[in-house]
């Protein structure tokens, strides 16, 4: 696959991070993953259907949506930290020129490098590493440690840290366009979507479809984790659950219904992702 040319702001951003990086080269076998929820809507359209039509993965600056914080606008927190991390390279860039966020899946997790942000993930082709930058911890925490493919000690820092399972990822930034056909090796879905419209939409994408073991949590176990995100979150999860179980598809139905606060639902997902990851069992 041909490598897309980087424009001046993208090349400048990578060069700036390279100057802040330390360590040796990354293991070339490591992959970047981009976790997201595959059953959400964007502009009233199912997100996978929109991706199939456009053929690209877009950043929060373009979509106005996120599974993290919603601060991708001039003067917002994400705008400010991108300005710091990339030496102002993107300060006058168009939304579509800005980087896309994912994680370096340094632990080889079946559910992707940062399931905090969704049950599905795109696994990128290895050549995309050449136009990625990295930081640890997440950029929201004003990190001081950075890396690029040829100079990165962040894996050792992450492995040696004692963070929660949802917070131990090495953040990745993909500079330049992210094309589904050329840059994505596979979309990896939760098995709760087998035989559903989500699977049908996924099969229209120009990349392979794979499955991970899934996220599933019984209500009996859920009740033991009220301290993680709060008793009100556990109560909301119980209201969403069906037949004594919670999974990503049920959470997606709740999100699309519009009857629940999006930030509260995000915390329900955190509980499910943290304690219901069947690949970690």
Q: What does this entry show, briefly?
A:
This protein is 33% helix and 17% strand.
What report would you give on this structure?
Strand 9, helix 7 (197-202) and strand 10 (208-211) form a beta-alpha-beta unit. The chain has helices at 8-20, 47-54, 60-63, 77-85, 154-159, 180-183, 197-202, 219-222, 226-229, 231-240, 248-257, 262-275; strands at residues 32-36, 41-42, 45-46, 100-104, 120-124, 132-136, 145-148, 170-174, 184-189, 208-211, 217-218, 245-246. The strands form three sheets. The protein has an eight-stranded mixed β-sheet. Strands 2-3 form a two-stranded antiparallel ribbon. It is globular. The chain is an alpha+beta fold and 281 residues long. It is 33% helix and 17% strand. This is DUF3626 domain-containing protein.
Q: Structural class of the secondary elements?
A: alpha+beta
Rg value: 18 Å
Quaternary structure state of the chains depicted: single chain
Question: How widely separated are the two ends?
Answer: 37 Å
State the low-pLDDT regions, or none: none
| Secondary-structure element order, N to C | HEEEHHHEEEEHEHEHEEHHHEHH
Biggest pleated sheet: 8 strands, mixed
Report strand order across the widest sheet. 7-6-8-4-1-5-9-10
Helix-residue proportion:
25-40%
Total E-strand runs: 12
Q: How many helices in DSSP terms?
A: 12
| Strand fraction | 15-25%
Instruction: Give the overall form.
Output: globular
Summed over residues and divided by their number, the pLDDT gives a mean of: 93
């Amino acid at each position: 696959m041909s490598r897309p040319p980087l424009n001046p702001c993208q090349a400048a951003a990578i060069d700036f991070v390279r100057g802040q990086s330390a360590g040796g080269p990354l293991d070339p076998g490591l992959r970047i993953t981009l976790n997201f929820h595959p059953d959400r809507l964007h502009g009233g359209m199912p997100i996978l259907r929109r991706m199939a039509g456009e053929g690209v993965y877009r950043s929060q600056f373009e979509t106005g949506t996120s599974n993290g914080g919603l601060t991708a606008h001039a003067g917002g927190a994400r705008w400010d930290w991108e300005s710091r991390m990339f030496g102002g390279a993107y300060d006058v860039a168009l939304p579509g020129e800005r980087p896309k966020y994912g994680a370096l899946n340094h632990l080889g997790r079946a559910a992707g490098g940062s399931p905090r942000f969704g049950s599905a993930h795109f696994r990128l082709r290895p050549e995309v590493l050449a136009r990625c930058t990295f930081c640890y911890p997440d950029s929201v925490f004003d990190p001081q440690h950075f890396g690029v493919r040829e100079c990165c000690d962040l894996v050792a820092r992450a492995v040696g840290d004692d963070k929660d399972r949802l917070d131990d990822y090495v953040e990745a930034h993909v500079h330049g366009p992210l094309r589904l056909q050329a840059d994505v090796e596979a979309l990896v879905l939760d098995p709760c979507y087998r035989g559903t419209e989500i699977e049908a939409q996924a099969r229209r994408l120009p990349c392979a479809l794979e499955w991970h073991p899934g996220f599933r949590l019984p209500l009996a176990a859920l009740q033991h984790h009220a301290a993680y995100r709060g008793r009100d979150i556990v109560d909301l999860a119980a209201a969403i659950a069906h037949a004594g179980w919670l999974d990503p598809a049920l959470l997606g139905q709740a999100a699309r219904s519009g009857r629940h606060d999006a930030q509260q639902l995000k915390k329900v997902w955190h509980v499910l992702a943290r304690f219901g990851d069947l690949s970690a069992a």
